[in-house]
Amino acid sequence: MRFSAHKLRLRGADNVSSQSNQSSGPVDSGKERLDVIDSPVPFLTWHSLVLGAFVSVGGIIFGYDTGQISGFLEMNNFKRRFGQLRDDGTYTFSNVRSGLIVSMLSIGTLIGALLAGPLADRVGRRWSIAFWCVILQVGLIIQISSPAPKWYQFMMGRFVTGFGVGACSLLVPMYQGEIAPRQSGYALGVSDVAFRSSYQLFVTLGIFVAYCINFGTESMANSGSWRITLGITFLWGLILGIGIVFFPESPRYNCRHGRIDQAKSTMSKLYGVPQNHRVILEELGEIEGQLEAESASKGGWHGWVEMFQGPRMPYRIFLGIVLQALQQLTGANYFFYYGTVVFNGAGIRNTYVTQMILGGVNFGTTFGGLYVIEHFGRRKSLITGGIWMFICFMVFASVGHFSLNVRDPPQTPGAGKAMVVFACLFITGFAMTWGPMVWAIVAELYPSRYRAKAMALATASNWLWNFLIGFFTPFITGDIDFAYGYVFAGCLFAGVLVVYFCVLEGKGKTLEEMDMMYVMRVPAWKSSKWVPPSPDQRIAMGEVLDRRTAEGIDRADSSGKRDADNDCGHHQHIDDNAAGPSSA
After folding, report:
1. What is d(CA 161, CA 68) in angstroms, rounded to the nearest whole number?
2. pTM score above 0.85
3. Are 377 and 528 in contact (CB under 8 A)?
4. How far apart, in Å, are the Cα atoms of 30 and each of 27, 42, 78, 209, 286?
5. Which of 534, 543, 531, 532 is nearest to 575 (CA)?
6. What is the pLDDT of residue 541?
7. pLDDT < 70 positions in the chain
């Protein structure tokens, strides 16, 4: 079952080898024609380029909806329409009202992300994306049509919009990952992980675009100041929802439903090679192996129970949940959701300009993140980024709490400017490390058999903490002002420790090798020097791990664990009589 892809690779290699041994002269007509070819593969085709660029609109939708709300909270018309009148004649938002308006999107995204997967498996990726874009539009209509003073209608509109945003945040990367030619990534010197991480780039672009449009409309006295920004979201949804139906279904979905010829045709166009090319046959074999592994797992609640009985799966599930929570607890959304409010409190005259600067830094430095993740590895990047952001938040919080005149911020302009500088430095660290990397690292934690369910739990953790930060931030800042930054600094320090002691280095390793390291209990701080077993040892290990999973055994015996911990840098294998890995 698990070696179908391996057999296809061997078959292709044998054919190519026999082809290379033939003379360069014409082949006799009586000889059997080879059924597998191995011509050079273009690193990029127009089909793959247009498709990849188009579906990235899904990332823009995610980022755009995240970035726009920060500007709304400081727009005069929005405050008069949905805010509360104070004694001095001005309008403001209570902590409860602002918290609910901001955070209800996160609850919707959580529900949408959980519902999107099963629907996509049933009706396909394309039609699922189109359906959730319709839901997105419904939520936008509810928001745009909200009359004064029905702030709760606007809040519920964001909740419904969250269904579409959350579903697209799951389905668009899924569709990209399933349809993107792998050869393109390797030809460009980029791993699959960095290729997937590029989705984050378009999320940051959406945030930046939202900040720019808010800057252009905030001076309008009527409701166009915020309705125009929302209306442009409607346009993004129309482009993605209508356009996606004209693109092919993913090869993985076609294979799942037995449409192998359609899968080959799609891959042939995207790769720019014939359908009987070696690369296409290899990838079809890998898809087949993954689908067989998924079908071997039980459905319903039994499938969830089985997942927790897999080799070291409880540990890995908990680690994924913690990493996603820590990504939110870095404090990035403190700036993305409440940036205009934060910098208004710091005495910055035009907070929309500051938000544009932050958004530009976030977008620009994400390009650097695609380089960092590939050339410096996961562990070094996350640890360095965590320390960098820890320092930035310590300075930001200290200046805001001790140097800034909170009651009259313009009296301390230097403190406000310093806070903006360190906020930009913080965003630089986040965009290059924890922003794109956590999603990629969590995807490496789990074997194919359990990846969908385990990643659903990790994603739920991310959105849950997203909601908690969005809702409780007004209450916390109202009590301790900018000392709130110390909370995020403490979480960043904890995150560095978690990465050092728990996260294995995945640079240059396959998903199968990552699975081996977790099962072997390789110490995280030694994982970068770990050498994988030979192919023969790997086959024996795979057979034993399959037996363990079937029997519900989730850990090796004590002797195997001691061997793995004491000598994780050497070649290791599992024989049929052993319960755990032993040094070769």
Report:
1. 13
2. no
3. yes
4. 8, 32, 80, 63, 34
5. 543
6. 59
7. 1-34, 42-44, 181-198, 293-294, 296-300, 534-584
